[in-house]
Every structure is written in structure tokens, then in C-alpha cells.
Amino acid sequence: MVTPAALRIVFFGTPAFAVPTLRALLASRHPVIGVVTQPDRPRGRGQQLQPGPVKILAAGHGLPVLQPLKMRDEGFLDALRAWQPDLGVVAAYGRILTDALLAVPRLGTINVHASLLPRWRGAAPVHRAVMAGDRESGVTIMRVVRELDAGPMLDVATRPIADDETSAEVEPALASLGAARLVSVVDRLAEGPIPEQPQPAEGVTYAERVTRADSPIDWSRPAKALHDQVRGLHPWPLATTALGGQRLIVVRSAAAPEGPEAAPGTVVEAAGDRLVIAAGSGALRLLEVKPEGRRVMTAREFLAGHPIRVGARLE
Q: Which end of the chain is flanked by fewer CB atoms within 10 Å, N or C?
């Protein structure tokens, strides 16, 4: 049996989610001829320019890297054409690819997207799935088209989301799952065209980018919804409330569907390791919190240094 020719891959990616896919390609028989990643960003207290995770990995393997400020820049497009890629692979690059760019790879460009499309197209599919209380998610390998995350699907893999899992736990699991499925798809494309399934017209939702505006807790909502908010916003930007005029970050929680009759936001238990707050329905137990300017504390640690009376209100 003749082994199909390897495909020359140009990889587009930026954050940690993209790293397993790039690693999997580097370990495959298909050469990664170059990497496109976003420009270095200021990070840390000193706000020094720092490379992203994909650039660090690419540099460690001696790969050429392009970091265009604009997708339409002709110098960037000329450099990309000079690589003569057979296939483009995208994993959380973070920019919309232009028609001119999509025309460069001979076999087009495919994307590793962390949702079960057409649900959660867009920038923050994992966070939005967890915040919505979805019981499962997955990865879709799709062909990149002009419309956001709307291309036909080449492969899909599902994964359950446990009741207490956070985005910080779900995302790396999906990254690993997507990496393995992506290499399988590339192997099949090397043999010739493969079936592409159009996305269903029904069930489309959009995963807007998560910002600090998502953080404030509205205690009138059900406890389960608040628990999902806490999980979905972990590790950033985290869910927040206020106690006595001071900002309090809720790092981990647990939801009780039934709770004592009390106004939403009322402290109904505050002793030992139990800090329980009434919600619109049920109650939310705060397991780990972070007072403004302090470290993360368990409920027991927090209550030891911050006595709270039952009946106090969080806002």
C-alpha cells in the first residue's frame, strides 16, 4: 500500500488551547512549515510584551512565525504564499481570516472549534457552554468559511460536562480531544476529499467573548444558574459579589436546589465551613472566595477572619 504524500501545514493559533493541536501536528508525519499567531501582548505587573503559548512552542521547534497586525497586509500574504502550504489548520487563533488568506492553502483551511456546532459559534464556546449549564460539549473539526464558524463539519467528538467542572477543567480536555481528531482528519485529507456535513440551520447560538461585565452575581437568579456562572467564569474573570461594600470574588461554589425562605442575597448560614447564601430559588454555598486584594480562601478560612452574621446581605 502506498502511503499518501504528507501535507505541508501552516498553523494558526495563539493561546494555550491551541498548543495540543500544534504538538499533535509536530508529532505527525505532516510537516508544519510555519505558524501564524497574534502579536505579543503586554502581560504581568510590568506590562512587558510577552509571546503567547503557541509562539513559545513554535520557537522551541525552530518554526518560522508570522504575527501580522492586519490580515490584509500584502507583505504578510506574500510571506504566507511563499511557504506554499497544502492545508491551513486553525485552533483559537482569535482573528477572522480573509478571503485572500483562505485562498492560499491548496486544500483550504480547517478549524478545531471547542463546541458541538452549530451551538456556540464564536469566541468563548467553553465558557458559554458551562455558564449555560450544558451537560455536554465537544469539538468540531470544520472547514473555515467567510461566515463565523459556519463551515461544513468534517468530524465531531463529544464530551460530558460534569456538574462541578469549571471552564479551566473543560477547556484543556477539549483541546486534547480536538488535537487527536484533527490529526486524523488531516491524515484522511491526505488521501483525498472526505465527506463534509453542512451544519444544521436550527440550533445556532453565539458565544460572545467573556468580559468583566459577566462577573457580577444577580442573587435573584436560581442557585443552579449562579453555580454555572461561577464555574463558567473560572479561571477568569471570575464571579463577583459585594459584602459590606467590599468586593468579594466567588472562586468555587455548590448549588442546593432547595433552601430556606429568605430574600435573595441573604446569608442563611455562616459557621464552620458553611457559608450559604439564598438565591432566587435554592441557595448557593460558597466554597472558596477571594476578598479584594487578598488570597483565595476556603469558606472556613474566610469566616475565621471575617465574622458574618446570618441575615447579612450580599449585593
A: N
Number of structural domains (the chain) is: 2
How far apart CA 86 and CA 111 sit, in angstroms, is: 15
Q: What residues make up the domain containing 286?
A: 212-305
Residues 203 and 256 in one domain: no
Boundary of a domain, candidates 207, 236, 256: 207
CA 127 – CA 124 distance, rounded (Å):
6
Residue 33 has pLDDT above 60, yes or no: yes
End-to-end alpha-carbon separation of the chain, Å? 68
Last-in-domain residue among 207, 235, 260: 207
Q: Tell me the CA distances in angstroms from 296 to 142, 252, 275, 293, one per residue in order.
A: 40, 10, 15, 10
127: pLDDT strictly greater than 60? yes
231-249 burial code (b ≥16 CB/10 A, e <16): bbbbeeebbbbebeeeebb
Do 12 and 90 form a contact (C-beta atoms < 8 A)?
Answer: yes
Non-local CB neighbours of 269 within 8 Å, separated by 6+ positions: 275, 276, 310
pLDDT of residue 161: 98
Distance CA 259, CA 270 (A): 14
Work out the burial of residue 3: count CB atoms within 10 Å of its CB; fewer than 13 is exposed, 13-18 middle, 19 or more buried. exposed
How far is it, in rounded angstroms, from Cα 9 to Cα 309?
Answer: 61
Q: What does the mean pLDDT of the chain come to?
A: 95
User: Are residue 139 and residue 190 in the same domain, yes or no?
Assistant: yes
Can you read off the three cell numbers belonging to residue 188?
484522511
